[in-house]
Specification:
Blueprint lengths: L6 H20 L12 E6 L11 H6 L1 H9 L4 E6 L4 H8 L5 E5 H14 L5 E10 L5 E5 L15 E4 L4 H12 L9 E4 L2 H10 L4 E5 L2 H7 L4 E5 L7 E8 H6 L1 H20 L1 H12 L3 H8 L6 E2 L5 H16 L9 H4 L3 H7 L3 H6 L9 E3 L4 E3 L6 E5 L6 E3 L2 H13 L4 E7 L6 E3 L4 E4 L9 E4 L2 H10 L4 E3 L1 H7 L1
Parallel strand pairs: 1-2, 1-3, 6-7, 6-8
Antiparallel strand pairs: 3-10, 4-10, 4-11, 5-8, 5-9, 12-13, 14-15, 14-16, 16-17, 18-19, 18-20
Helix pairs in contact: 1-7, 3-10, 4-5, 5-13, 10-11, 10-15, 11-12
């Protein structure tokens, strides 16, 4: 068993991650949501960084307040921060939160429980914040010294997850594909992310199944390694905005102000990605390198507020699954819950074209200075972030990225972070945390290939004679 971290380091990690949760208990006082006081109560999750355009970044930039001032200047915003979507749902059903943002599974639970309660409690899903069509927003990580190579190796072990979250759902569905019965073959501990992170570090949990940004955070800190990329499940996952139906009907102008402010924040994130990541990092205490992994150009999350057919279809498929594991009792009636009329109005004439596209609006572009090539393929493009430089350096492909790193090291530059898509799944990950494979039979420009998981690398090696796993440092030296 791996030795636990020194108490000072562990306490430091948990205190940073838990900082946002405390504000959920202290902000807002006795504000009455939807009342005549002019206060609008918004529930969000600061650490769930692909909701930032409806939460952390939106709050920091003040775009919602600006839109409200333009409207009539009579309203104020009360922000409530939580670790997960469950307490936001509870507060919405109690009429204490007007607008909230959360993941797809919590959204489904929100709608199901609101429909069951009926009346003024009913809610509607009105926009998307960030999504990943393959499901890579959710992952399973293990301790760095773990011998587990696939989910199958977790049989008989304890897995920490927030039951009912998208991270938990990804684990359950993936485990079944590996022949495991999640109810019998593993012990799932229902824990908040902060508690689960501590459990992984102490060794009381063998794995940690969570949503962004938790897996990337622990891997970035060297306190975990990626065992399973949710992208292997190939099921879309997303986060979105939900509103109390009655509130939307009575105050449509307020909801329009919020959605237009969300669009403002999305545009800001696309046009100033590094600045946006630094803003979120400063506000949340998360490392900026982790934020940028998910929210930067070509990041794990694609930010687009439109409600796409692929996401709605995945949502429909999630209903029987969540019922099967006992998270919801009453199946959600999807049609009355999904309402894209508000975001359609906010986006305007471009909505139909935008909703039909699944291309990431934020792509890595520019010229690879070392390889002398234009960077234009999102499937291979990477970035090198040099300490002290205001912009990242684009790399055309994995081999060019290694060459960039070698050249910068030769110049004595300090590299802050390096990002590259996984060879098979396309998931953007930390290049220095990837498992690299050398394939002598491949063309020189494709000789070294990155994989986010050990399993992915070994699958490639077994299918390509002569291919072998090599350390990252060796790949850099020999690229």
């Amino acid at each position: 068993m791996r030795l636990p971290l020194p108490r000072t380091l562990l306490v430091g990690l948990v205190s940073v991650l838990a900082a946002g949760a405390a504000t959920g208990c202290t902000v807002a006082g006795n504000a009455s949501a939807g009342g005549g006081s002019g206060e609008i109560v918004v529930g969000y999750q600061s650490k769930t960084i692909n909701t930032v355009t409806a939460g952390t970044l939106l709050r920091t930039l003040g775009f919602f307040e600006k839109r409200l001032r333009e409207l009539d200047g009579k309203h104020s915003v009360v922000w409530r921060d939580y670790d997960t979507g469950a307490p936001i749902t509870a507060q919405m059903l109690a009429g204490k939160i007007d607008i909230g943002s959360m993941g797809d599974y919590p959204l489904l639970i929100n709608g199901s429980r609101a429909q069951a309660q009926g009346g003024d409690a009913e809610t509607q899903w009105v926009s998307v914040t960030g999504y990943n069509l393959r499901g890579s927003l959710n992952s399973v990580v293990v301790a760095p010294g773990s011998k587990a190579r696939t989910l199958r190796d977790l049989k008989g072990e304890t897995v920490s997850a927030s039951v009912g979250s998208a991270g938990h759902g990804t684990f359950v569905q993936a485990a079944r594909k590996y022949g495991l019965d999640p109810a019998k073959d593993v012990k799932v501990e229902n824990q908040q992310p902060t508690v689960g992170a501590s459990a992984l570090q102490s060794g009381s949990a063998a794995a940690f199944a969570q949503f962004v940004a938790w897996p990337g955070l622990l891997v970035n800190k060297g306190q975990a390694k990626l065992l399973y990329d949710g992208g292997d499940l190939n099921v879309p996952t997303f986060h979105g905005v939900v509103v109390r139906k009655r509130y939307a009907e009575e105050k449509p102008e307020i909801l329009q102000a919020f959605l237009r402010a969300q669009i403002d924040a999305t545009n800001h994130l696309h046009s100033r990605p590094l600045e946006a990541a630094q803003s979120v990092a400063t506000t949340t205490g998360l490392p900026v390198e982790t934020v940028y992994l998910y929210n930067g150009p070509g990041g794990v999350a694609t930010f687009d507020p439109t409600i796409k057919k692929e996401l709605r279809d995945a949502f429909v498929q999630d209903v029987p699954f969540l019922k099967s594991i006992g998270v919801i009792q009453t199946p959600l009636k999807v049609d009355p819950f999904v309402n894209d009329t508000h975001i359609r109005k906010a986006v305007g004439a471009a909505y139909d074209e935008q909703v039909a596209s699944t291309a990431n609006p934020a792509a890595i572009v520019g010229t690879d200075a070392v390889c002398g090539r234009k960077v234009d393929d999102p499937r291979t493009a990477g970035e090198v972030w040099v300490q002290g430089e205001p912009k990242t350096r684009p790399a055309a492909d994995p081999v060019c990225l290694l060459k960039n790193v070698r050249a910068l090291q030769g110049e004595g530059k300090r590299i802050r972070a390096v990002y590259i898509p996984d060879t098979a799944a396309g998931t953007r990950w930390f290049a220095d945390k990837d498992v690299w494979v050398e394939d002598p039979s491949a063309p020189a420009a494709q000789r070294f290939k990155p994989f986010a998981t050990d399993e992915g690398a070994r699958k490639y090696v077994s299918a390509h004679s002569g291919a072998k796993v090599v350390p990252y440092a060796e790949a850099v030296r020999r690229a």
